What does this fold into?
Amino acid sequence: MRHRRTTNENKMLSKMENMISMMTTEKPFERLQSLEQKINEVDKIQTIENYIAQLKERIWSVKEVLTTAEASAYLGLSESYIYKLTSLKQIPHYKPNGKLVYFNRKELCRWAMRNQVQTIGQPAAITKEEL
It folds into this structure.
């Protein structure tokens, strides 16, 4: 007795044959290599973007005039603490238009390095003239 195929079976068989034919004509190994190359390009782009972000974070090391956020990163202090120090006039800063706060990088460095604590056996602090 012969088994007759139903319409659904014929449709499924036809779909499977189409898929197999597409897979063999598409050259799967070449397609995989192409996809791998594209993934590598995306990885390179992400690496470049990470480097750019790092450079943006460290731009304050070459800038002379810093914003509050940059001064915060430079000194390792929170922005709110920087604002508190400016309101108490304990840190050198500038307000050219009366609102925005700016800092001179060299002045911040001198401010951070003030009040040196001598260690045991350390000679007296070096003065600017000795440098």
Observations:
- The mean pLDDT is 82.
- The first strand starts at residue 65 and ends at 66.
- Residues 43 and 49 are 10 Å apart (CA to CA).
